[in-house]
Amino acid sequence: GQQVQQSPASLVLQEGENAELQCNFSTSLNSMQWFYQRPGGSLVSLFYNPSGTKQSGRLTSTTVIKERRSSLHISSSQTTDSGTYLCAMEPGTGSNRLTFGKGTKFSLIP
Amino acid sequence: NAGVIQTPRHKVTGKGQEATLWCEPISGHSAVFWYRQTIVQGLEFLTYFRNQAPIDDSGMPKERFSAQMPNQSHSTLKIQSTQPQDSAVYLCASSLGLGENTLYFGAGTRLSVL
To answer: B62-89: per-residue pLDDT in tens?
Structure first.
């Protein structure tokens, strides 16, 4: 079954609002990674986050292993934040293989 | 550091023809991954190598897909007798393979099978 559930599938906000994206995973975790992709663009790594909270500018990633979830928070969103955000889990089995969620398509209204 | 380099960026083949996709990982990275991306399925794992050795090819359609890593500076993905359902963006990624295993993706090869 699906090991990584990502929500919401799409999100439309007004510029300046905060966004919260979620990933839930069903197996043991070594790390969660978050990526960003513009339409037609390549995947850009945002965070490698095995547990706890990491921040980079307006982006914050929080992984809570006991609750089997990871979140990405975007504060004061800007039109340049539009695109697709994907989470990917690296299992706790020793494999480096990542399993991706289906992504959240994020759009901003100016 | 030029990042992960994939060639060609676009490839169009006729049904039944062969397609070979190339990937040059970031120098010093020991793990190389192949994924494909479609709108319907999202990102699907195909295969990966560590130190040039195949580690996991469980995502590869067995009959027509094969991947090689003859040296540490490049990997190829070959699709024989291409079918329309093979149309996708094929993504190569590399990582250090140890510790913080962040994946760095190439721009992808868009394969269109007519």
So the answer is: 889 999 999 999 999 999 999 999 999 9
